[in-house]
Amino acid sequence: MSDGAVIVVQGGRVVTGDGEYDADVVIAGEKIVSVGEVSAPDGATIIDATGCVVLPGLIDNHTHLSMPFMGMQSVDDYDTGTRAAAAGGVTCLVDFAIQNEPDQLRSALAAWQGRADGAAHVDYGFHMAITNANQPTLEDMQAMVDAGVSSFKLFMAYKGSLMTRDDALTATLERARELGALTMVHAENGDVIDLLVTRALAQGNTSSIHHALTRPELVEAEATSRAARLAELTGASLFVVHVTCAAAAAEIDAAQQRGVNVSAETCTQYLVNSIDDLRRPGVEGCRYICSPPLRDASNQEPLWAFVRRGVLESISTDHCPFNDEQKARGLDDFSLVPNGLPLIQHRLAKLWDEGVVAGRITASELVDRTSTTIARRFGLDAKGSIAPGKDADIVVFDPNAPKPYGVASSFMNVDYDLYEGETASGSVRHTLCRGTMVYDRGEIRTAPGHGRYVARSASQTPVFAT
Ligand SMILES: [Zn+2]
């Protein structure tokens, strides 16, 4: 659509983070210009949303496209991964660029920019994962913030590769505070996991379930607590990624009650899958290996309650797909299975059914946890809401159009689907990114390169659970 073209999304029920109401949405060019009862101007393109909900485009703030890991690479690139994103109602993602020692952050950002540039169908930004927080790296953080990369991630797990030590974490927290940037952590105690994995393998406990059993809940809760205390010590803002269990979420809750600037997300899979998936035979069990691992199902209702309270303020995917052939490398040794699940396309449909239809959260809370709060937390100032002046990132979702999950209808570049055989009760009809139809009833309409890099703003303000 050319600049200034007018589109009216007509007759739908608009859902925002604040509530829902019947309204039309008028788009001019890349922006939303009005929301309410309007008569469509002459020449406007009409998108009929009768019977549908109209949502701000979802934002996935935790993805790993073309991610190098354990000598392999995740199989969705910025083309296929953002097609799948659009098919799942996602109009913006924030992917992790990773410092490749001994290089500094600038070269990592350039490498990830090169992968995404000209390939993406929806908008994208980057977090920067720091693997060596030495003095030049800490200085380089300023250049990242200037380039619109306003969040930094450290791994407290993956000993021997990505793992950071507490001194480096503390120095990074201090530096990020100076810059108004956000420090993110993967919170698991990597030393203890290393001990438990070595012991399990020595005892011949090599199957997929032992991936989860060697990364118990308390190992996550301990690291979560430690990271929160270091944030408290430094006065920095902390964001804990992929919280999986009640014990870890309780540590976030306690820190928030103390007034620490700590916020956190969970991911779709921890709300809908469980440790039992790792007991599936053969490579099927390997498909469910991610870190931290899927947990006992008794965690799911407590996690939903933390989501409702906002202790867990957002829900992402940690999308990091590997094919069966890659997963199968660890059939005889769970520690060799590449970690990650393919989920970027399924978050909205799954959370709609397990959250909204099941009565655990409202549609408005779903929008808040998957779009509005993410935009605010991560400095995506033009995203996350349906309001005049915002980017025209819009999803038309039909809650009464069932759709089977499965490889046949998946845009994810992976040779299985975690929910094959299940049917979602509703489905995405259209996804617009900055006023352009990217996904239209089963088809991708854009060429690679429609998606643009989004520079994110830096100023972290505390948001506490209520
Ligand atoms: Zn991740």
* Count, helices: 14
In percent, how much strand structure appears in the residues? 15-25%
Largest sheet: 9 strands, mixed
Poorly predicted runs are 462-466
Please state the CA-atom Rg, rounded to the nearest Å: 21 Å
Shape: globular
* Structural class by secondary-structure content: alpha/beta
Overall average residue pLDDT: 96
Number of domains: 2
Distance between the termini: 42 Å
* Beta strand count: 21
Q: Specify the CATH homologous superfamily of the largest domain.
A: Metal-dependent hydrolases
* Name of the CATH first level of the largest domain: Alpha Beta
CATH topology of the largest domain: TIM Barrel
Give the CATH architecture of the largest domain: Alpha-Beta Barrel
- Give the ligands present: zinc ion
Helix content class: 25-40%
Describe the structure.
The chain is α/β, with parallel strands linked by helices and 466 residues long. It has 2 domains: 6-55 and 387-413 and 423-444, Roll (Urease, subunit C, domain 1), CATH 2.30.40; 57-377, Metal-dependent hydrolases (TIM Barrel). It is 32% helix and 22% strand. The chain has 14 helices and 21 strands. It is globular. 58% of the residues are buried. The structure holds zinc ion.
Question: Tags for this entry?
Answer:
alpha/beta, Urease, subunit C, domain 1, TIM Barrel, 2 domains, 8-stranded parallel sheet, 14 helices, 21 strands, binds zinc ion
Element layout with pairings:
Blueprint: E1 6-15, E2 20-28, E3 31-36, E4 45-48, E5 53-56, E6 58-63, E7 68-69, E8 72-73, H1 78-87, E9 90-98, H2 105-116, E10 123-129, H3 135-146, E11 151-155, H4 166-179, E12 182-186, H5 190-202, H6 209-213, H7 217-234, E13 238-240, H8 246-257, E14 262-267, H9 268-272, H10 282-287, H11 300-309, E15 314-316, H12 324-327, H13 347-357, H14 363-377, E16 394-398, E17 403-404, E18 423-424, E19 427-433, E20 436-440, E21 443-444
Parallel strand pairs: 1-4, 1-5, 6-9, 9-10, 10-11, 11-12, 12-13, 13-14, 14-15
Antiparallel strand pairs: 1-2, 2-3, 5-16, 7-8, 16-19, 17-18, 19-20, 20-21
Helix pairs in contact: 3-4, 4-7, 7-8
The protein binds zinc ion.
Residues 62, 64, 318 line the site of zinc ion.
